Amino acid sequence: MPRILHDLACLDDRRPSPYCWRSKYALAHKGLEFEARPQGFLDIPRLYGGAHRTVPILDDDGHLVGDSWAIADYLDARYPDRPRLFEGPAERALCRFTEAWLFGSLVPLLMPMLALDIHDHARPEDRAYFRESREKWLGRSLEAAAAGREERLGDVRAALNPLRLNFTVQGQQYITGDRPGYADYIAAGLLQWVASVATLPLLERDDPVVAWLERVRDLHGGLGRTSPMYAIAA
């Protein structure tokens, strides 16, 4: 039975979910083969009798695991002889901090800017659901949220300074040092979300964050280049 990771998919087989990206990288990090099976927003509640509300969902020969953190912990426990995602409590804490920082400071800036792009790239049957749910969350229309987004690029770029300094001041190749780790997969997954749908380039070409993202995309046989992306820098 193939190992299946259920993955959010939009038009043209774009794969925007940052959580699914980190789980795909986690599987590749462990050296495990898998099929990233595409699912639309409205397909997800129909999977496995509605047991999971979101993706990723890992089906590992009948063992079902939902949520990217649960999947990472499952993989380390199930396959301890393969490269670990968390070498110890300190690395896991770094990963938790990375997620809290990115999703606390960057996502609130990005979601209003990108929600309309996500809607326009969603499968036609998913668009009404996406619009209703995200407009409720944003408190305004998708069009109003996206208006003037070019003027907000500076705020987004500034919010990435801690990541940028990791490469310029610390001289590290990856967040975890000289080797890629789950913290890199968390951060890169977020930028893969952006590149999957954003018609507005987020960064400047000479940004060290871009060079790091290209390194992460090249990992595991070019995993980060397996679905369509827009240029994230201009």
TrEMBL record:
Keywords: Transferase. Signal peptide: none annotated. InterPro entries: Glutathione-S-Trfase_C_sf, Glutathione_S-Trfase_N, GST_UstS-like_C, Thioredoxin-like_sf. Residues 7-83 form the GST N-terminal domain. One of its GO terms (molecular function) is transferase activity. It comes from the Bacteria. The keyword Amino-acid biosynthesis does not apply. This is Glutathione S-transferase. It comes from Nannocystis exedens.
